[in-house]
Structures are given as structure tokens and as C-alpha cells.
Amino acid sequence: MNSFKPENISLPLSSVWLLNSIAEYKGKQELYARQSPQILKTLLEAALIESAESSNRIEGVTVDHARLKPLVIGHSKPRDRSEEEVVGYRKALDLIHTKYKNLRIISDTIKELHRLCRGESSDAGKWKEKDNDIIRKHPDGHIEVIFRPVSAAKTPEMMKQLCLSYEHSITQLKYPDLYAVACLVLDFLSIHPFRDGNGRVSRLLTLLALYQHGFMVGKYISLERIVEQSKETYYETLNRSSQKWHEAKHNAMPWFNYFLGTILAAYKEFEERAANIKPTRGSKTQIITQAIERQVGEFSLSDIERECPSASRDMIKIIFRELQKVKKIKCLGKGKSSKWKKI
Predict the structure, then answer these.
(1) For residue 102, what is the DSSP state?
(2) How far apart are CA 6 and CA 187, in angstroms?
(3) Does residue 52 surpass a pLDDT of 70?
(4) What is the pLDDT of residues 2-20, one digit of tens each?
């Protein structure tokens, strides 16, 4: 597809910095996932509600805030069309959360995401049947066409080619993973394959692709809410990167950097939120003990500290002393850098 046509790309330094920062935060999140599952459960529920609310609200679909938790977490029965779409988005999120490893990014998967998030709509899960334009309404009432997506007649084939181009890019390691995901979403939005609901499906597609590459932050921090909060920049960068898209002469970098900025913002928020959630009584002791049990050969206090970001150094020292008393570990030296070993 068009964003995958360049054989070589030259990433600006700003993109490289963002990629490096994301990689660092990704590693921290993996530690939290292993060490603090009870914290992640709290974040997961909040993210589900925020994602279902924000992704629909961006498209003008709103529901009473008091109804969100019963609809998303409590599986309450929807009362109207708007609530049906919120419930549908939650169902699509459930599918991604539980089956992302087995979901290929192909036309059928994308249509299934659309079918779920569009609820009982007559065109749910179907490509558009009429051409659609992306427009801007001005204050004086006149309408400006800012982008003409792919025609309805060409949409099925273009979507097939997009999925093949993305898969080829991933299997052949043609581009960095996050660049390939950004191109996938940019091309999807440029094709605009559905009559309605393209924005919501693009955000679901983003989550699915990110999960498959190990970037799980969207499960615990709502990327949809971050997009909503930066909606003007979202549309601006999308518009800039879609210019000359049909001729494959567009510049994907404005969209790519926005995309990276969104992910980095989510990781930063994840670390802040995870650190501020008070663990259940005794959980830190268990986290530290499990980290020690996983060690092979000699290890230091600093090794455990890196594996337990939610635990203080003083807390780790207390656990070390307790385990030393019951002869489960022993110290092999003296001083701050001394090594320890399991007995």
C-alpha cells in the first residue's frame, strides 16, 4: 500500500529519540506486569471505560457518564443507540485483549472489528457502498473537502493490498515495528473503507497491532482518551501526512511522530499511575521474594531493585535480612555492592 512503497526511509532524530524512550518505558511496563498484577487489574478497568467513552465521543457518540461503568464493566443492557455503540466498542476491545495473538490483520478481522463496534447498524461489518469525502465545516456554514478517500469500487482490493503490504513489511523486517503500525493506520484512514466508524476501527486496529508487537500500554492507559485530548493535533498531522497520498508522494513523518508521541504519553502516564496505586497488604513482600526466587547464581540488591520498581530499597533490604535469618539466602561479601546467593 502507499505508505509501504518507499524501499528506504530516513528517520529524523526526533523520531529516533521517541523510539528509544518508548523502548525504555516498554521494559519498565513489562516489570510491572510481572511484579504487580493487582495494580494492572485496577488500571485495566479504568482504561476499558475511558477507551469506550473517548473513542465514541470523538465520533460524536455520547452517553450518560453514570452509565459507563455498568455498560463497560458490569455488562448492563444498552438502552439506546449510543449505548449500543459503547457496548459494541467494549466487545471489540474484549476480542483484542483475549485473542490478539491469534488475530491476523486481514480484511475479515477489520470487518469484524467494525461489526462489533457498530452494533446493530445495517452496514456493520460491510465496506462502504458509496464514495465518501472527508470534509471540514467552517463557521460561516460552507463545507470544504479536505481529502477524497479511495472510491467504494476500489475499496475491497485496496484493503486487501494494505493488509498484504503490512504483513510483508513485518515478516521481512522492512521497517521498524512502530513505523509499520503507523503506516498501517495512516493508509487505513486514507482508504476510509466504511461508511461510518472509520475512526473507531482505526483505534482498535492500532491497539491490535501494538499488542502483537508487545506494546501493551493501551490495555492499561486509554490511547483513545489521549487522542481525544489532542484531537486538533491528531486531525492536523493526519491531514498533513495524507496530502499526495494517492500518488504515494506523501510525507508520513508528521503522523508518525504524533503516533509515537501518543504512545510515549501513555507509557509516562502508566508509570505515574502504577506508582501511585497503593498495593494490597503484603504484596510488595511477595513481589520481592518472587524476584529473589527467580535469580540464578549470584545476585545483588541492585539486581532485585531493578526488577521491583514499585518497592523501595529499604523494603528490599528488610526482606533480604528476613530471608538471611531463616537461611534462605546468604551474603558473599561486605558493602553496598556485595553479592548474595540462594541456599
Answers:
(1) G
(2) 14
(3) yes
(4) 999 887 788 999 999 999 9
- The DSSP annotation for 105-150 comes to -SHHHHHHHHHHHTTT-TTTT---SS---EEEE-TTS-EEEEE---
Least confident of 15-19, 111-115, 228-232, 268-272: 268-272
Amino acid at 128: K
In order of start, what are the domains of the chain with their CATH numbers? 2-276 (1.10.3290.10), 283-342 (1.10.10.10)
Q: How far is 314 from 154, CA to CA, in rounded Å?
A: 63
Contact predicate 305/313, CB 8 Å = yes
SS3 261: helix
- SS3 of 331, please? strand
Helices (H), 172-312: 177-191, 198-212, 223-229, 231-242, 253-276, 283-293, 301-307
pLDDT tens digit sequence for 115-139:
999 877 889 999 999 999 888 888 8
